[in-house]
Amino acid sequence: MLDIKNLHATVDGKEILRGINLHIKPGEVHAIMGPNGSGKSTLSSVLAGNPSYTVTDGEVTFNGKNLLELSPSDRANEGLFLSFQYPVEIPGVSMSNFLKTALNAKRKYQGKEPLSAAEFLKLMKEKKSIVEIDSKLTNRSVNEGFSGGEKKKNEIFQMAMLEPSLRILDETDSGLDIDALRIVASGVTKLKTENNATIVITHYQRLLDYIVPDYIHILYHGRIVMTGTKELALELEEKGYDWIKEQFPD
Amino acid sequence: MNIKDQNIDIVLSSNTSRQEVLNFDSQTPAEVSVTISLADGAHLDVVLLQENVAEAKRCVVRVEQQANSVLSMSTITLGSADVKNDVEVRLKGEGAELVLNGLYLTSGADKVDNKTVVYHEVGHCTTKQLYKGALDGESKASFEGMIIVQPDAQKTNAQQTNRNILISPKAKVHAEPQLVIYADDVKCSHGATTGQLDQQQLFYMQQRGIDEDAARRMLTAAYAAEVVGLIPIEDVRTRLTDTLFE
């Protein structure tokens, strides 16, 4: 589904990703862990096509297409979804208008007719229950005045609506209390199928108790320096990131 | 109503109220003069609507407000090629309230100028002014707004805000907000900002599958909706909001 080969990327002229290789198949859950500044969020931004980042080398293939040639919106409509670490507030754009526009953009991309107002409302109602999101929130402007937890729930709600094939969760656990974490993580798990894949980017092992990964990759200084199964997260939790830093000096 | 005459007089006697929409279209004379006179306690909501007008239009508005009268005037210029609005309001009776708002969305080679002058001649009057513009293409717009607080106009409360966003780097805006105060016991503020659409918002929308053009249109609509949302005439407000987001 996703094939990353020797990916290099810079931001403001500084090289952050220094040769990432990653292969992800449908149905898999991959966790990417690493200390602050290792390039975790850069990887998610580059995959989503954030114009602040420049790819200087490497290839990314998504569903057989050259991902790096697609616009950010085409990447999304191909099935790539990024749950933002810091979801953006858009005052004046209502959640329902935003989601209807996004959903119908995807349907158009797939050659499908737009949803009717009734079909859309029915779908909203059905998906809201997955993340226990308050109905009042979906009547407001996108993320405006939402608490940290509400914003993260809203990301998962949008994910439920758009049904992406590749779900990238960028530090979804940051700023969440344990109850919100449980709701968000169970939303992600409920929406898991054998056809979609998940990349969980996190600093802490905690989230991986709820979203159990098939593989764990340790990112350090812009490279994946270690890959293992879920036991690796426990080892990391025990020994701390210094353990990595000692093995891979600058 | 659609404007057919060169001169329009709106005169409200004491404690009466009215709502009026003045529609500019191709039949409207090139130069229009609007005179508004509000007696004590009169209340007028008026919208000057300049929507998709291809021909050059000049509109001069002269207003006098007596004590405790209320005027809400919104000048909405959407997709019009060449418009100049010149508004002058004199607050002549204590307790008069003025809400003076404007919106201009321009593209292509459009040119829209708004000039406003408000005289606070007596005390205890209020002005709240918000003009917003979003400029695309190679369009040009200007906002020249002056509020003059005369020596007798103590306890004046005046706020003037002008915000602009340049959607295209080739668009140009000239903003000149001015406050001239001759009284000492007043509460006045003014400010002007010019910026671009928020890149983070644009990226967030694109990440959800909305293409860049559509995302720009939605953000522009959201930005403009603030002024439209302040229009007290409900059917105009609803229709314009729908137009913005369609």
Tell me the series of helices and strands of chain A, N- to C-terminal: EEEHEEHEEHHHEHEHEEEHH
Mean pLDDT of chain B: 96
Overall morphology of chain B: globular
Strand content of chain B: over 45%
Q: Tell me roughly what share of residues is in helical segments of chain A.
A: 25-40%
Compute the number of structural domains of chain A.
Answer: 1
Roughly how many Å is the radius of gyration of chain B?
Answer: 18 Å
Multimeric state: heterodimer
- Strand ordering within the main sheet of chain B: 1-3-5-7-9-11-13
Shape of chain A: globular
- The structure class of chain A reads alpha/beta
Q: Would you tell me the overall average pLDDT of chain A?
A: 92
Low-confidence stretches of chain A: none
Largest sheet strand order of chain A: 6-9-10-3-11-12
**Separation of the first and last Cα atoms of chain B:** 24 Å
Task: Supply the number of helical segments of chain B.
Answer: 3
- In CATH, the homologous superfamily of chain A goes by the name P-loop containing nucleotide triphosphate hydrolases
- The end-to-end span of chain A amounts to 33 Å
CATH class of chain A: Alpha Beta
List the helices and strands and how they pair.
The complex is a heterodimer of chains A (250) and B (246).
Chain A: E1 2-11, E2 14-24, E3 29-33, H1 40-48, E4 53-62, E5 65-66, H2 72-77, E6 80-83, E7 90-94, H3 95-109, H4 117-131, H5 135-138, E8 141-142, H6 148-162, E9 166-170, H7 178-190, E10 197-202, E11 215-220, E12 223-228, H8 231-239, H9 242-247
Parallel strand pairs in A: 3-10, 3-11, 6-9, 9-10
Antiparallel strand pairs in A: 1-2, 1-4, 4-5, 7-8, 11-12
Helix pairs in contact in A: 4-6, 6-7
Chain B: E1 7-12, E2 17-24, E3 31-38, E4 43-51, E5 57-65, E6 70-78, E7 82-91, E8 97-106, E9 111-120, E10 126-135, E11 140-149, E12 157-166, E13 172-181, E14 187-195, H1 199-207, H2 212-228, H3 234-245
Parallel strand pairs in B: 1-3, 2-4, 3-5, 4-6, 5-7, 6-8, 7-9, 8-10, 9-11, 10-12, 11-13, 12-14
